[in-house]
Amino acid sequence: MVLTTVQSGKDYIIHAVTGEGDTRLHLGSMGFVPGTKLSVVSRLGGNLIVSVKGSRVALDEKLAKCVMV
Question: Is the pLDDT of residue 46 over 90?
Fold first, then answer.
C-alpha cells in the first residue's frame, strides 16, 4: 500500500522504498528504510507530515508515493 493512502494516526511498517537511486537515497537519509515504523501525523493537500524514528518529516505527494507500507 502506498503511503499516500494510509490513515492518519495509525502505525505502519515500511516494506519498500521505490523510485530512482537519488530518490531512494534521499528518503533513506531521512529514515525511510524497510522495517521502520512510521505514522502519518497530518495532511495538507497532497503533502504529508510523517513521524519516523522520533522525528517529524514533511513529504510532498511525489516522495510519499515512493514509500510502500
Answer: no
